[in-house]
Amino acid sequence: MANREKSNVGAERRHVETEIPRNWIVTRLDDLISWARRGSLWPMPFGTACCAIEMMATAASKYDMARYGMERLAYTPRQADVLIVAGRVPYKIAPVMRRIWDQMPQPKWCISMGACASTGGVFDNYTMVQGIDTVVPVDVYVPGCPPRPEGLLYALLMIQEKIKGESIADLRSREEDPERAGKPHLPAEEVELIAGPFGNSTFQNRVSGLESSSPILRPGDRKE
Amino acid sequence: MKRVAVGTVERADIKELRTRFGDAIRGVELDAARDPVVYIDASRSVEILSYLRGSQGYDMLKDVTGLDLGGGRPIQVVYQLWSTEQARPLRIKAEVPADRPKLGSVFGVWRASNWLEREVYDMFGVSFEGHPDLRRILMPENYEEGYPLRKDFPLRGRFTRAEQTRRALAMGLEDVYSLQELAVVEGGAGDGGRAVEAEADLSGVTAGAVKPGSAEQQEMAGLATRHMILNIGPQHPATHGVLRLVVELDGETIVKCTPHIGYLHSGFEKLGEYREWNQNIPLTDRMDYLAPMMYNIGYALAVEKLLGLEVTPRCKVIRLICCELNRILSHLIWIGTTALDIGAFTPFLYTFQERERIYNLHEAYAGARMTTSVSRIGGMMADVPPGWLDAVRDFVETFPQTLLETERLLTENSIWIGRTQGVGVIGPEDAINVGACGPNLRASGVPYDVRRERPYLDYETYDFDIPVGRYGDTYDRYLVRMEEMRQSLRILEQALERVPDGPINVDDPRVILPPKSQVMNSIDGMIAHFKLVMEGLKVPAGEVWYSIESSKGELGFYLVADGGPKPVRCRYRTPSFINMSTLPYLVEGELIADIIAVNASIDIVLGEIDR
Questions:
Q1: CA-based diameter of chain A, in Å?
Q2: Cys-Cys link to A74, which of A80, B231, B357, B526 (CB 3.0-4.6 A)?
Q3: Which 148-187 residues of chain B touch chain A by CB within 8 A?
Q4: What is the DSSP letter of A77?
Q5: Chain B residues with CB inside 8 Å of A126's CB?
Q6: Is A9 part of any domain?
Q7: Which residues contact B156 (CB under 8 A, 6 or more apart)?
Q8: Which domain range does residue A177 map to?
Q9: Where is average pLDDT lowest: A70-84, B4-18, B67-81?
Q10: Could you tell me the residue range of the domain that residue B357 belongs to?
Q11: B533 near A CB under 8 A
């Protein structure tokens, strides 16, 4: 190339520069890597309850998740890219989920499938994590109780969209502090903020010792 | 509840109980289903219960649960018994003081009480003396907030959410997987002296300390051998959810299996006390999401029994169609996943295709694929849409073909036979004793089916058979479920022939919302609507035990009402919970590879095990 540049005149040089030999593609490295990543996502199914059945339906014959490159469900976190938390997550299983997340290598993404995983759902009680984003970072939330398989597929496509926008030069979102492993994802005050009763949370009544927010009283609750 | 004087209940067994134990029988009541409830002296409970088991033939312990009425009143421990011979129920209640609740364990009488008593200990703090392994079962073992089902326990727990999250994550997994915990032996604490090595994955055990096993083991008695502890789960594709199995292995033979549950404990029973009667229906289908309509309908039937309400003839038949469709739905996923666990992938795809067809029926009726919430107290959420019954008929006509195809893949498949025949065997008496229910019990040769024993939804008027196994192994459990699907089709055919016209809901403004035309146009309708919405459905004080045959076994509802719009106690006796507790009896002595097949064959769903 260098020799030809010296010997040839300007018009030919321009010709050489624009001609691309066959079987070559010029692209940005970011585009290439994100194309490869989003076309071969390996989901790690962390299915606990009802949503897990819809996740199975997504993988089964009618919906067939493999169409989008999720051919292989990785049952080991060491070989997975996307953690799909499908179903309710009680406090008892939370450390297990966190450990699985910590075990997954970067780059990794997380889908919170269903109302219970995203917010605790109807289970605003003593045992349920009020949204898994207090424990692990979440990329896509899928609403529904349970979401339809189309919903989960859409979430996976959104993960693919997200990968499109990522750059390998920008490592900020991918940095992990080993000290943070096994710790809550959010600070205590934010956990309180997120997990507090809201909306249609089950009301307390007087029997529980807390202030009643419900107009209905039990006959047995009446103070004589 | 009407308290009946002792002696007026005309049943020979209760009279005999009275004459034999005298003052230890504190009282007899009849519940809303006219079943007797006997209050006994807590200090003599084991004696009385052993007598009932030994001399009165109450061989089946269906449920042990607690009942806290609040206000420092004593905690009642409730035993639900059943005599398979005489086909009659008996409920025993023992009252223990709330501050120091103590009771004798009946583990020696019924093995089924093992997990049930642990649950009462976990939820109410009642300690059962003589129980071999009294640990928390649903909550983490280091749970410090108290006993969740006590009335003084707040719904959201005692700690703040941040503290709960911090504590949960601070629980190092090494604490959870400690070898000391693994060394707990079911059935006796005699192995307490066993040396456990701190850092190795093996507990050092010499062959001399092993329970008597095979002949090879006896020969090797001179050699020092070690048992390996293998942990499966809680996140494992073959455990059908978040279940953890700890197995102690001698070579490839399972010496001991300890299931750990509670990883999906969702507090259904606590939530049930905070919600109105009808509001509990959406919770019930999240318990068993494989057969949701069955749970909706079972709960509605139980509350209707408390109310003394009879639903319309059309509603009964529609409910029965929903129940049988869901039995097929649940058995289909059972076959698909069990075959998947054993290594056959094709049945999974076949059965999921059929499941999609039932999901379409769900969707056409209720609008949801899985969490249907289809029933209401006094009826259904709506009448079935036009053409729905024809779609069910179409399914009933075409489904046998897929069933046949699936059966052709498996029934005479030599791999399938090799993996299932003679594996996980349990005999009829043992099966009753350990509490197996549903198809698992019937596979062992016990023809117990709630649809026959205590018919509901007019099951007695339908012509169907109860398939019963002969050997009680995994293969029989498979055959029983395949045959049950055929019988369900038979029932569906008959039901589709007889769907009567008429209203789907009872005509009772205290229970069912009046139609919108009445609400808008008449003052009566508006008042009825207003009262039902604002005050809720009032259920008269009383209690009831009502059970239906779900796809997994006997699903019992023990509901206690005090006249208000919410239940006082909402106990769900879920079949998978009891079936799961039978797993150690099935797999001990088998090979490690068989634990997956046996665990799959008992058809568990973690949502209802952990509730």
A1: 108
A2: A80
A3: 148, 151-157, 160-169, 171-173, 176
A4: G
A5: 145, 148, 153-157, 164, 267, 270
A6: no
A7: A124, A125, A126, A197, A204
A8: 42-196
A9: B4-18
A10: 278-552
A11: no
